[in-house]
Amino acid sequence: MTHYIAGSLMGRNVVVIGMHRSGTSAMTNAIRLLGCSIGDTGDFISPERWNPEGLWEHQRLIDRNNLILNLHGGTWFAPPRLPNGWMRRPKAQAMLPCLRSEFAATYPEEGWVWKDPRACLTLPAWLETWESEPVAVMAFRHPVAVAKSLAARNKFSLRHGLALWEIYNAQALWNLRELPTFVQSYDDALEDPPRLAGKLSDALTRHGVELDGSTSAAAEALKPSLRRNTVGKHDLGLLTGRQRKLWELLSALAAGMTWPNDDDLEKVTSPSLTTRLVLFSKIPLRRRVALTRARLRPQLGRAWQR
Q1: The domain that contains 32 carries what CATH number?
Q2: In-domain check, residue 300
Q3: Of 75, 189, 206, 234, which has the fewest Cβ atoms less than 10 A away?
Q4: 195 lies in which domain range?
Q5: pTM of the complete model
Q6: Residue-wise pLDDT tens digits, 283-306
Q7: Does 40 map to a domain?
Q8: Residues linked to residue 115 through DSSP beta bridges, in sequence order
């Protein structure tokens, strides 16, 4: 599904958005093979057991995303709450010159493709640094498959993995609502890679992305053998009500449903209290205490200082 914004600028660059373990690496490689630049590879993360074909991520930009999350009291595995308009705050505005210079050093020319799963959360900051509006490709995967993959790689509990899946995908949808966006199920892409490569090429070209690569090479990058975790219908029973609704929305968008208005989208993408508590519990104790004090201080006033 492609989400069209009336009157939006046509973007020549591509940002790939998606939760960890959701096929963003394969999707980025496919877009690279279609003809987009991957930038300066001097700080590329090397292929490893969990991504033998490569992550296609730049360490310096990962570091900046981690810094954004840390400065707001969280990490990639325990994301902070970033309220609407957080980029207008002085702390966020102070980051922009550094973000601009780091990104320009990594991608000196237009026509790029960039991905880091943390951008699901931090995208508003990067949008402030780019001169032109990018086209977005959002990859998603079954929540239980993602949670199982995180359990194998990071030793996370299924509950923790599902909470992360919810937060990342919910924030991604909210942050993408004003961008031209192509939404794609990773599992469906692996069922028919040539068809996906053709759809992806058509969608990007329609939005002004100049491609001179090969759809057949892009299709070959989407290898079904890379999928290690499968799920069944019974696995939906592991989801909370909010997670199930979010999964249904993502599936509907990929199938061609019109992008919901902000009010309807907010109902699905606002994280549940259960999910917030699960992720808050993953923050180191000292930082949790500091965050709790910071939130309570305005309510307690002078009593807090005694």
Answers
A1: 3.40.50
A2: no
A3: 234
A4: 2-272
A5: 0.88
A6: 776 666 565 555 554 443 433 333
A7: yes
A8: 16
